C-alpha cells in the first residue's frame, strides 16, 4: 500500500499547479483582449455609420449658377457699366459665381 505524503506538494505538483494558474491567466487575458477588441470594432463601425449618415444629411443642394448680367445696350453710360461690374464683383466675393463666370460676364459688360 502506498502512503500519501501530507504537507507541501513536491516539485511535480508545484509545476502542475503553476501550469494551471498560468494557463488560466492566459485564457482570461485572451478573453478580455478579444472582448475589448470586439467593443472597439463595434464602436468604430457605429461611428463610421453615423458619420456617413451625417454626411448624407449635410450634402448641400446644388445651387443653380447665377445668370450673368445682361449685356448693356450700346448707348449705356460708364456709370451703368461700373455699376454692373461692381455687382459682378459682389457676386464673385459672395461665392455665387466662380472666376470663369465672372470673366465671361465682365467681357459681356465691357463688350469684349
From TrEMBL:
Composition skew (Pro residues), residue ranges:
62-73
Extract the InterPro entries matched here.
SHOCT
Q: Where is the SHOCT domain?
A: 83-110
Give the compositionally biased regions (Low complexity): 50-61
Renumbered to this chain, region (Disordered) spans: 32-79
- Indicate what this protein is called per its UniProt record: Putative oligomerization/nucleic acid binding protein
Amino acid at each position: 500500500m502506498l502512503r500519501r505524503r501530507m504537507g507541501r506538494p513536491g516539485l511535480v505538483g508545484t509545476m502542475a499547479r503553476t501550469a494551471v494558474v498560468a494557463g488560466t491567466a492566459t485564457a482570461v487575458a485572451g478573453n478580455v483582449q478579444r472582448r475589448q477588441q470586439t467593443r472597439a470594432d463595434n464602436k468604430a463601425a457605429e461611428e463610421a455609420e453615423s458619420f456617413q449618415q451625417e454626411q448624407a444629411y449635410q450634402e448641400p443642394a446644388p445651387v443653380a449658377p447665377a445668370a450673368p448680367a445682361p449685356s448693356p445696350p450700346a448707348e449705356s453710360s460708364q456709370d451703368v457699366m461700373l455699376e454692373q461690374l461692381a455687382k459682378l464683383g459682389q457676386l464673385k466675393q459672395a461665392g455665387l459665381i466662380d472666376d470663369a463666370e465672372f470673366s465671361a460676364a465682365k467681357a459681356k459688360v465691357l463688350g469684349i
